[in-house]
Structure formats: C-alpha cells, structure tokens
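Dear colleagues,

For the upcoming journal club I promised to circulate an example of a predicted protein-ligand complex. I picked one with adenosine-5'-triphosphate because it came up in last month's discussion. The inputs are reproduced below in full, followed by the predicted structure.
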Amino acid sequence: MINEHGSQSILVSGESGAGKTETTKMLMRYLAFMGGRSGTEGRTVEQQVLESNPVLEAFGNAKTVKNNNSSRFGKFVEIQFDKYGKISGAAVRTYLLERSRVCQVSDPERNYHCFYMLCSAPPEDVKRFKVGNPRSFHYLNQTSCYEVANVDDAREYLETRNAMDIVGISQEEQDAIFRVVAAILHLGNINFSKGKEIDSSRLRDEKSINHLKIVAELLMCDEKLLEDSLCQRVIVTPDGNITKPLDPDSALQSRDALAKTVYSRLFDWIVDKINNSIGQDPDAISIIGVLDIYGFESFKVNSFEQLCINMTNEKLQQHFNQHVFKMEQEEYTRDEIDWSYVEFVDNQDVLDLIEKKPGGIIALLDEACMFPKSTHETFAQKMYQTYKSHKRFSKPKLARTAFTINHYAGDVTYQADYFLDKNKDYVVAEHQALLNSSRATTPSPDGNIEHDRTTLH
Ligand SMILES: Nc1ncnc2c1ncn2[C@@H]1O[C@H](COP(=O)(O)OP(=O)(O)OP(=O)(O)O)[C@@H](O)[C@H]1O
C-alpha cells in the first residue's frame, strides 16, 4: 500500500468454521501493529478497532452445528491510513444479520451469545435487568444447548462490557443495550389465548401479563400500547382506519416480528456507535479493507437467507474468476507467454438466473411481493414455468415450493415457503409507533424530568 500508493482489500472466504473470523482478527492485529502509533496514550484507533471484535461477536455470533462461535453477519472493515502509513480512522460495515435466530433456534445450536452472557451477569445486574435462568426463557429454551465448551458466559459478560468501554460506549448506553436484550427475552415469554371476539386474542395468563409489564418497563413504553401493538393491526382504508384484532397465532407472529426488529435495530445501533466513536479520517490517503463474509451455505432446510448468502458467494466467485482466470490469462496471451490454459467454470449463468433484471429469481420475487394475492405456491409455480429448461435450475420430484439451484459449489435445494415475507421485511407500523413512544426519563440535577437521549430508538 505504501510502496504503490494504492488502497487494497483482502477477502477472507470459506465455509462456516473454516477460520475466516480468526484470520480476520489476525489480519487486523497485524495491521494495528504495523500501522499503530507507539507510545500513544489513551484509547487509540487501533485499540478501538480490535476491541470492536468482541462487542460485535457478543451480539452477532452464536453457537451453530459447525462452529461454536459462528458469525451470523457479514463484515467489511475499512482501515484508513494517513500519509505516514499510520492508522488514522476506521469504519465497520455489517451485512445481513440472521434475524430469525432471535426467535427460533434448534438443537444443538444457541441463540446470540449476549442473551446467555446477560443471564450469567453478576447478581446485581441479573436483578436490575430482571433476567435469570436461561431455561426460563422461550427464546432460549427451544434448544437444550445452554453452554458452550470452554466458554464462560459470566466472564464474557464482563469482557464485553470492558470492550464496550474501550470502543466508547458509555455505562448508560451499555445499560440501555442490556435493557433491550432483557426486554427481548421477556417478550418471548408473552403468550396469547383466544379473546372474546371472533379471531381475537388476549394475554394468556398472569405470567404473560407479568412478562408484558416487564417488557414495557424495560423498553420504557406504555403497557397498553405494547399489548395493542401485539394483539391488533390497524388497516388503513380510503374511509379511515379500521382496527382489526389478531388471532393468537398472528399475535405470536407479531410478537416475534417485534423481537426481530428490535434486535436487528439494536445491532445496527451498536455498529453505528462503534463507527462514530472510532471516527473516520476524511483526509485518509489510502485504506485496507478486510471482508469477512458468510461462506457458501447448504443446510437440510435452506431459505431466503441462504439464497442471499449463496448469491453473494457466486458474485465473489465471479470476481475471482474475472481476476485470476480471465484477466490473468488474457495478459499471458497478450504477452505471448507459453502457458497451458487453465479451465474454469464460468458462473455468469447462475448469477443471471438469480439476479438478472428482469427475469431473475429476485425480480420474480419482487414482482410476487407486489401482488396481494401471491402466495409462496404461486411464486414457486411461476419459477417452475419460467426456468423449466434452465440448466442451473431444477424442480425436485413432487415438490410444491422447493427448487434446486446448481451453484458453482454444488446443488442447493431451497424451500420457497417464507420467501415473500422475508423479502418484504417491513416494520409493522404499530411496532414503530410503540418504539417511537419509548422514552427514558431521568431527573435532572434541578429536579426536572429530562429526556434521556441514550434510549435506543
Ligand atoms: N488459526 C487458527 N488457529 C487455531 N484455531 C483456529 C484458527 N482458526 C480457526 N480456529 C478454530 O476454528 C473455529 C472456527 O473459526 P472461525 O470462527 O474463524 O470460522 P469462520 O470461518 O469465521 O466461521 P463462520 O462462517 O461460522 O463464522 C474457531 O473458534 C477456532 O476454534
């Protein structure tokens, strides 16, 4: 970078558990060492960059089948250098946090580390944040895995707090973050039964009422507003707004949607906070980018998230093909070098199948999302029809919604069942109104109530 005056990027890729995150951390440590300023006092940019790792891992990593500390998001770290080749700023960009994990986990996996850390926090924090045994929370007890070998969640909690200090997250902000984490756990314990009206729901029992109260207290919002946002939906019509009750199943879905929205916003807020605190250098001369992205995924059940991840990997593969095979070999030909041609499989056709506009799978999905009558079945039928002679696409025998793509790394069968909802990914208006109404109020030194801006909106 210094000799050739050019910015560079390092792409770390590989399947889950291959060692991408560990390699990225080593790269960052190396760059911090080479570009650090010796003898600088206080929190240096390089220290903050390194300490952003444990904070992001606490909220974005989880134990999976393949890896006890699997990153469930993609990350691009941009390290900025001044004209002396010293680190002068940094920025972290994250991609596609796996939101579904917040509400749905199966054996032998766990939810995000931060939930277990908070449950193992020192007694005063457990009391303050009203948490307890992880086995008592629905979002954690769907799997029987609570511990990870060689990981002490109690110690991790203290280390995460320490790393948060270093990256510039204040004690008040840390408390606000863990209040939100605790609120999500209690939210998952709210259950519903049939209400008096047809297709309506109400809180199931005293336990649910109690958890709702705690959520309202932790999120600093109104209890009734919280209950209504879970059990009702307002429909806007040309003649005015109509309030429609939700049946117990829909209320549960609404509860989970709220939990996922709050968690993903919390994660984004933490990333923003880290970036603001580390600071960017507008006068940086060059950058070194490090990309640690999800590897190619193929599970027993693959959904929209896997399609997005695998599409990203197809694009990276294409970039690799372009640079290593196409461009390099063209140069050899130009230079009349005697070499034997390296065969490679061009994956442009898979990329076109997925992302071409119009006509690709994503374009068909966007189109389906615009028609209120579309279902996952009509979407799947449309795909079967459109790609019936595409050599990279096939329909498994007897499938109604499943489809298989022949990726560069192998065949993956996807279930189209939740593709429409996942692609829409909207925030329910009632949830937004509820969260906007959340206010932390603390008495100011003169006794007046002040709005505390550390609340996470
Ligand atoms: N260089 C290394 N030395 C020793 N152990 C390593 C090294 N790299 C990885 N590991 C081990 O492998 C595990 C998985 O590595 P890592 O979390 O970096 O994988 P990953 O490719 O980022 O996976 P994912 O895509 O699931 O996030 C680590 O927790 C560690 O135990």
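Two points we might discuss: The longest helix spans residues 248-278. The chain has a mean pLDDT of 91.

See you all on Thursday,
B. R.
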